[in-house]
Each structure stands twice: as C-alpha cells, then as structure tokens.
Specification:
Distance between the termini: 51 Å
Strand content: over 45%
Largest sheet: 7 strands, mixed
Helix content: under 10%
Number of helices: 3
Shape: flat
Length: 343
C-alpha cells in the first residue's frame, strides 16, 4: 500500500508515493527552490509518541528542470536510514567501551557525530562507538552526544538525514580500585552477520554491556562472550539479537571470582540458545512473523531487495524455504523469550 504526499507550487503538481516501511508521521514542505531544477525539502512535522525518539528527520528531493512543465507522479520503495537506539550504556573509566547504534532501513552512506569525549571514537562503517575512557575521570559526568545518519535513494534523487541525541553517562573507576570479576558464556543463534548484545542488569538498570560483533556467514553459529570488571552483586542477564526472542538469565551472583556460565550444571545456561523468527520484534514468534515472511515482496526475494530484510533468518542473502523452516521449528514457533535461573 502506497502512502502519498502532494506538493503544489506555482501551478506545478508533484505527487510523491512510497511504500512502507517509512518514517511515520505528518510531513510538511520546508523549502522549495527552482534555481537549476526543482529542489524540495520535507521534514517530519509530527510523529506519533512511539516514534518521537529522533531530534529531526529531513528528506530532500532534487529533480531536473524538465519536470517543471507538467504534473508528475514519482514512486519509490526507498527505505531511508532511521536511528532506533533509545539509550546509550554508560562508559566507565579504564574499561573498554563498544556499542553499535541500531539503525533500520538502508545502511547510512555517511555519519556525523558531535559531543563524544576525546577518548572515544566512532566507526562509521559499523555505526559503533568504541575506545577506553581515561582513568583521570574522578566523578560521574553526563554529556550529550548527537548522531546524524544520512542515506540516499539510488533510483531517484532522494537524500535524507536522521538526527538523534543521547545522554552518555561517564563513570569514574571503582573507588576501591577493584578490577572486578569477569562473567563469560556462550550463545547459539542464527545469522552471524548480525551482532548480539549481552547486558548485565542490577535493580532494573543496565550496569554492563558487551557486543558480539557480526561476522560474514550464514546458518547457525555458537559465539563466546566475556564482560570484564563486574562489581559484586546479583545480576540478571539479557541476551538479544535482531530476529530473535530474548534470552533472560536470572540470579547471577558475582563475587571475587570469575563466573563462567559454560560450566553451569544447567544445559540451557551452558549454551544459551536464542529462539529465532521474531521478525516484527514483538517478543513472540508466531503467525504475525509468518505473515511478514510470506508476503510476496519478501518471499523468494534477495534480502537486499526486500522491504524487510530481517526475514532472512539464516543470513544467506535469500528469503526462502530455509528461513520458513527455521521459523516453523517447534522450539521457535509460538514461543517467546526464554528465562533460565542460575543453579
């Protein structure tokens, strides 16, 4: 189903049409320029509260002068880059920091970043913040970091910029000088191209996070992780990955010794198996996900050409029977997040 937006300027009618997914909201024309052709700038004037999470979104369409002598309709299934990360994990002095921003739509062609401390850098290829915060920090500090993701349509001359600001908490090194313990484990999932996030939570707050970076490949994969410098306490762990339901592990008690989850007596803890097939991200794998995978615009298509590339569950670049088989597996279908408890 197309969404439509009409621009009428000086007797010229331009009808813009696009297919979802697309930033949801009400658009307005903020600029029209006729210098060398037609240049129209659109911005989001209103966004529903569920998506009111970006500072700004702007798209520009440039057309040659030949379009100005007639009414014209332009159609596109362009899916512009949209920053969906809601918050940044805190950075602790002296500890390695790595976090990949979550972006839907086309991969950004460029990024701009402002406000990052000098010790931290940004990898535009992965959309990731990385580095080690200086140990000279002696008290907590909050800073504002702004990211802008730019994308461009290869079919018609669309370009867009999505900007979003975050509060980044900078924390000093543990005042007692304790290095803390390491919590390590192993995760089994599909599609090695996508990263896996592992978070340690204490009293509803994310205290530590690590990312298992994506690697080229397809099918099911087992990956190891380790979170260093964990202070004593009893934590919950959440393991999450695109296209999968979360794995939750409760009652992880950390003291002075390292915690190796692969040595736990419970097999579900020794190797945390993520349930695969949550295409729409609602936490369940069911008919709603099956319907998306079965759509003619997705099924038997290349993932790079489909509106919803998450349907490529195994990461082989195609959306087909292999992905349908994964979704239909008894340990995936009609299942949701898995919760286990440390023994």
């Amino acid at each position: 189903m197309f969404r439509e937006f009409r621009v009428f300027e000086d007797g010229f009618l331009l009808v813009l049409q696009w297919e979802p997914p697309f930033p949801i909201g009400e658009f307005r024309v903020t600029s029209v320029n006729y210098e060398d052709g037609l240049k129209i700038e659109l911005t989001l004037a209103y966004m529903p509260s569920v998506l009111a999470v970006v500072d700004s979104w702007c798209a520009i369409l440039e057309l040659p002068l030949s379009f100005l002598d007639k009414s014209v309709t332009i159609s596109s299934n362009w899916n512009p880059a949209w920053i969906t990360t809601t918050e940044l994990p805190s950075a602790t002095a002296g500890q390695e920091y790595y976090y990949e921003l979550s972006v839907t739509g086309d991969k950004p062609i460029s990024w701009s970043v402002s406000g990052l401390p000098a010790d931290l850098s940004f990898d535009a290829e992965k959309g990731a913040i990385f580095g080690v915060l200086s140990e000279s920090l002696n008290e907590p500090k909050s800073i504002i970091v702004k990211f802008t993701a730019r994308s461009k349509d290869s079919v018609i001359s669309w370009s867009s910029a999505c900007s979003k600001s975050f509060i980044l908490e900078l924390l000093p090194k543990d005042e007692h000088g304790q290095a803390g313990a390491a919590v390590s484990g192993a995760v089994k999932s599909y599609n090695p191209n996508n990263p896996t996030m592992v978070s340690l939570i204490l009293d509803s707050d994310i205290m530590y996070e690590t990312v298992i970076p994506g690697t080229a490949g397809a099918g099911q994969i087992e990956e190891a992780f380790a979170i260093e410098g964990v202070a004593p306490g009893t934590y919950s762990m959440v393991v999450s990955k695109l296209g999968h339901a979360d794995f939750i592990l409760k009652d992880i008690t950390v003291g002075g010794e390292d915690v190796d989850l692969t040595k736990d007596i419970c097999p579900e803890v020794r190797l945390m198996n993520l349930r695969c097939g949550d295409i729409n991200g609602d936490g369940m794998i069911n008919d709603a996900d099956l319907t998306i995978l079965w759509k003619s615009v997705n099924y038997n298509k290349k993932a790079s050409e489909a509106p919803n590339w998450l349907c490529d569950l195994n990461g082989d670049g195609m959306i087909n029977d292999a992905d349908l088989t994964i979704l239909w597996m008894s340990n995936n279908y009609n299942k949701g997040e898995f919760t286990a408890v440390m023994s």
